[in-house]
Amino acid sequence: MESERVESTIPSEARLVFGEHVELAAEFVELLASHGVERGLIGPREVGRLWERHVLNSAVLGELVPRGARVVDVGSGAGFPGIPLAIARPDLDIVLLEPMARRVEWLTEVAETLSLSVTIERGRAEEKVVRRRIDVADVVTARAVAPLARLAEWCVPLVRPSGSLLALKGQTAAEEIERDRSAVRKAGGGEPRIVRCGAEVLETPTTVVAIERVESGPSGVARKRGRKKH
């Protein structure tokens, strides 16, 4: 009966996004709605919108991630966007980076319960020892972590040249870009652009600020890989 109840609560959009892995996603939602609330990782008011606002919102980010990419999810918290991304895209090599011990414990339990092949690291992206330990990635993701300027400072160094920082943002994305463009450039990022993910599936697409990592020449001026110096 329990499996039938879970089955009946899976939205059609989830079946499109997760495909054959949708049952794992449903199990994650159940964990969030029960233990996640009990442990203060998810607010009680969020239970009714876990699928749309959190799980699907995170999973559609996979549209921007190349197959087989190495991904570092900064500030994973309750597991967003890293856990839904790992469920939808088992081809990815995902590192969940989280500084708080109780959240690391939660992420570890979720990964074991769902048999997800992810790496969980405790630490902060801005710490040099952490950067050395986890090395650079093809893609770095972040959701509800910090304003764009600070996020770029913390995360762009974790991105390999020509890789991308994908920051899940809300309605203020354009304003943040205007305000923090110079800070992004100083951190080693290229021109930020807004991308909508899940537009063909979700009623409200996910807003992502995508920033390509560029290389810095000897003068410290950011430049694209392969561009000649003048």
Automatic annotation (TrEMBL):
One of its GO terms (molecular function) is rRNA (guanine-N7-)-methyltransferase activity. Keywords: Cytoplasm, Methyltransferase, rRNA processing, S-adenosyl-L-methionine, Transferase. The keyword RNA-binding does not apply. It is found in: Cytoplasm. Coiled coil: none annotated. It is an enzyme of class 2 (transferase). SUPFAM superfamilies: S-adenosyl-L-methionine-dependent methyltransferases. InterPro entries: rRNA_ssu_MeTfrase_G, SAM-dependent_MTases_sf. Its EC number is 2.1.1.-. One of its GO terms (cellular component) is cytosol. S-adenosyl-L-methionine binds at G75, F80, A125, E126, R143. Specifically methylates the N7 position of a guanine in 16S rRNA. Belongs to the methyltransferase superfamily. RNA methyltransferase RsmG family. HAMAP family: 16SrRNA_methyltr_G (MF_00074). This is Ribosomal RNA small subunit methyltransferase G. It comes from Saccharomonospora glauca K62.
